Amino acid sequence: MEGAAPTVPAGAAAPARRARPPDWSLPWLSVVGVLALFEVLPRIGALNQDHFPPISETLARLFEELGTAGFWEAVGNTLQGWALGLGIAAVLAIPIGIVIGSSNLLYRALRVPIEFLRPIPSVALIPLAILVYGTGLQSKVFLAAFACFWQLLIATLYGVQDTDPVATDTARSFGFSRMQRLFRVTLPSAVPYIATGVRIASAVSLILTITAELVIGAPGLGQSINLARSGGNVELMYALILATGILGLLLNMIFVRAERRLLRWHPSQRLAKEATP
Amino acid sequence: MSARRRRLMGTGLEVTVPILLLVAWGLWSANSEDYYYPPLTEILETFANTWLFERVGSDVVPSLTRMFGGYAIAIVFGIGLGMAIGLSRRGRIASAPIVEFLRAIPPPALLPFAILVIGVGASMKVFIIAFVCLWPILLNTVDGVMGVDPTLRETTRVYPITAADRIRNVVLPAASPQIFAGMRTSLSLALIMMVISEMVASTNGIGYFVLESQRTFAIPEMWSGIILLGILGYVLNLGFVLVERKLLRWHRGARMSALG
User: Is residue B8 a part of any domain in this protein?
Assistant: First the structure.
């Protein structure tokens, strides 16, 4: 909206500005505020200390854990399940998604079964996994892979189907073969969808891995958290939950960065860069 | 191949392929001696005996009650907090690290915390479902509010419209497609958390039933429970899409007319 700045009548006093914390300090203030809350309330008894130990004790315990081999072993187990689940799902779902998405007939044939199988919550298969794969890594990977598979399949399908038909038609009229059209038009166009799908699938895989560790007792962070609780080790339980949250954050950050890097050339990313002031 | 014939073939495939797949499953499993994969006919029979309608009251109703209870709480708080944060620039900046962290914690990791503090009853399950479902709705509400057309926002400021009216009649409807997207994600999360919480700490419910069946080696019952959960997932999603379509019809209409 254009317009000259409103003129202030001469002699009018500018309203006094309240001293306000600068923008950059706000996140720090809120975090410090929350931490202080969880430190003071348990100590004065407003929160039950058995259920909510002061946050300083939890953080101390967390730092202690970072030095133990057991902790890193659990982290390794969780990451192993996460990586295998995501990897297997990607290796299966992306090619299958490309094939189905590229063929209208195939898509229509398989659409209904996919719509029925996809909403099955992966966790419903936990008892089946226990039966067939036992209580170890295989169960974990099965559950994570099952959940991630549908996520990635749908994302790939959407990506392939959302290719600009003008682009594919142009390629066809220039004499590109089917394979060439696939690799030079369809796939590059689908990559943003697939990348987003992988990022979401990564979170899904972590969730299922920890679920399997929690419910089935497969070794990993989920199992450690549960053991801490049932052993009455409340600070350890909170420390491990914090660690799990940090792990989730780190994994997410890695995928967001990778997505940005991979798609630097893509118009959607360029526009986003221009849009942010 | 002509377009018409292709369309007919497509519809034909859509109908026949699922039926063929089911028949194939039935045939392949008919003589199954495998303990873990009983014949489809046996599974269907068990399904009819268990869920039509014997165990509906004892398991399905408590499960769904807890799930919808948690979901409703998540909607109320998610939209409420989301609006507050979304409308305040400083609120967004201040709350960003806390929200980002809380939302990154994988939901199952919070179960032991909930069990410790709240116990193993229904309130624990409602709490964990509500907490987990809160984040997608909250974040999507914030995004939706932030995405309101700035011209629209500024126009409402020019006219003497109270803040409450502005929020209720301008911001909320404009953000609603995004809010609905968040609610849809949360719905599948609600189902998942319902099942997990029942598997870990419960004495009734569908999730509990499936796990218990596996423990007591009642395999056809286990499969019937899995199928029920799949049907539930499908029906919930379908129901949501229908409701969304109805409630947001004005939005699509406006978009369509804008496209001329």
Answer: no
Which residues of chain A make contact with B101, given a CB cutoff of 8 A? Answer: 245, 249
Considering the entire predicted model, what is its pTM?
0.84
How many angstroms separate the CA of residue B172 from the nearest CA in chain A?
24
B9 in a structural domain? no
Range of weakest confidence among A156-160, B55-59, B117-121:
B55-59
Q: What is the CATH number of the domain that holds B171?
A: 1.10.3720.10
pLDDT in tens, A129-152: 998 898 889 999 999 999 999 999
Q: In 3D, which of A139, A157, A155 has the Cα closest to residue A99?
A: A157
Contact A263, A194 (CB under 8 A): no
pLDDT reported for residue A112: 83
As to burial, measured by CB atoms within 10 angstroms (0-12 exposed, 13-18 middle, 19+ buried), residue B108 is buried
Residue B172 lies in a domain: yes
Report DSSP state, residue A232. Answer: T
**Full residue range of the structural domain in which residue B191 is found:** 40-259
- The answer to whether position B127 is within a domain reads yes
Q: Which candidate, B181, B155, B179, places its Cα nearest to that of B166? A: B155
Put simply, the answer to whether A117 touches B97 (Cβ < 8 Å) is no
Q: How many domains does one find in chain B?
A: 1
Which B-chain residues 47-86 have CB contacts (< 8 A) with chain A?
none
CA angle A35, A38, A40 (to 5 degrees): 105
How far apart are the CA of B202 and the nearest CA of chain A, in angstroms? 12
Question: What ipTM goes with this model?
Answer: 0.82
Interface mutation vs chain B, best among A34, A139, A214, most B CBs within 10 Å: A214
How crowded is the C-beta side of A232, counted as CA atoms within 13 Å? 1
Tell me the residues of chain A between 207 and 246 that have a Cβ less than 8 Å away from chain B: 207, 210-211, 214-215, 221-222, 225-226, 228-229, 234, 237-238, 240-241, 244-246
What's at B122, amino acid-wise? Answer: A
Report how far residue A38's alpha carbon sits from residue B42's, in angstroms, rounded to the nearest whole number.
Answer: 54
CA distance A140 to B210: 18
Domains of chain A: 93-265 (1.10.3720.10)
